[in-house]
Design a protein that fits this description.
By secondary structure, this protein is of the alpha/beta class. It has a single domain (4-256), classed as Rossmann fold (3-Layer(aba) Sandwich). It has eleven helices and seven strands. α9 (214-222) links the parallel β6 and β7 (227-232). The longest helix has 14 residues, at 66-79. The protein is globular, with a radius of gyration of 17 Å. The two termini are 33 Å apart.
């Protein structure tokens, strides 16, 4: 089973809040959210397969797809007997969250998607294909460092860039390649979800300086009846770390409202 942490309130009927990090992340992604949210919700924080302390997860697969990733999360939630929850995701986690809603819609109440990825843009496709080519020449840690600079290029992005590099060091080359392989299905999944209506009330929080993913997120939310977009100025892709006070304020206002 995935490695996970829980924080529980004494009230028996307290609502649950589940956190899903992005590729290369870990539970530490949410270091600035835990204290802010645990007075109001039971919290479930997960390390996705191969990330953080989720090592040697059975069964072992030669490659990954979104259903494998979702099965891992659902196994933990069923183990804890969580039948209903709010969710917060980051980056790639937004696509995982939408697949969870597709498979188990009764499980999800509200969704908060930080730094959401909603469309396979030309810039994003170029980054993924460049990553595959560079894998032939460089260890993945060097590739990850390079692309973290491309996605988070500014001085004010340094804190989130450094934290994500530290977390990514836990991945082995083999594990990294399995997650890179996920992007073949990822592009198809994004194209499918981009044209569908969200069925749950959703908040999308984006940094205005998220030059890879912001424009697609704005177009996605403009098509949605149940989604609201919050833009944080002078902020990059990992907005829950870089401007965590503003992110926590907006997410709590939405989840408690």
């Amino acid at each position: 089973m995935l490695h996970f942490q829980t924080y529980r309130l004494p009230q028996e009927e307290a609502p649950w809040l589940v956190f899903i990090h992005g590729a290369g992340g870990a539970i530490a992604t949410w270091k600035y959210q835990t204290d802010a949210f645990k007075p109001f919700f039971n919290l479930l924080l997960l390390d996705l397969r191969d990330h953080g302390l989720s090592k040697g997860i059975s069964p072992v697969f030669p490659s990954y797809n979104f259903d494998i990733v979702c099965d891992d999360i659902l196994e933990v939630m069923d183990h804890l007997e969580i039948g209903h929850a709010n969710f917060i995701s980051l980056s790639l986690g937004s696509a995982i969250l939408q697949r969870l809603d597709q498979r188990r819609p009764e499980l999800i109440d509200k969704m908060v998607m930080a730094g959401g990825v909603f469309r396979a843009t030309l810039k994003m496709r170029a980054l993924v294909h460049a990553s595959k080519l560079l894998n032939l020449l460089l260890p993945y840690r060097h590739i990850y460092a390079l692309f973290s600079m491309i996605i988070l290029p500014k001085k004010n992005h340094e804190k989130s860039r450094r934290l994500y590099r530290q977390q990514a060091k836990r991945l082995t080359q083999e594990e990294y390649m399995k997650w890179v392989g996920l992007y073949g299905e990822f592009f198809q999944v994004l194209d499918e979800y981009f044209h569908q209506q969200l069925k749950k009330w959703s908040l999308v929080v984006m940094g205005a300086e998220d030059h890879v993913f912001f424009k697609a997120a704005r177009r996605f939310v403009a098509k949605q009846e149940k989604a609201t977009l919050v833009v944080i100025e002078k902020c990059g892709h990992i907005c829950n770390i870089e401007q965590w006070q503003r992110f926590n304020l907006e997410a709590l206002k939405f989840l408690k409202g």
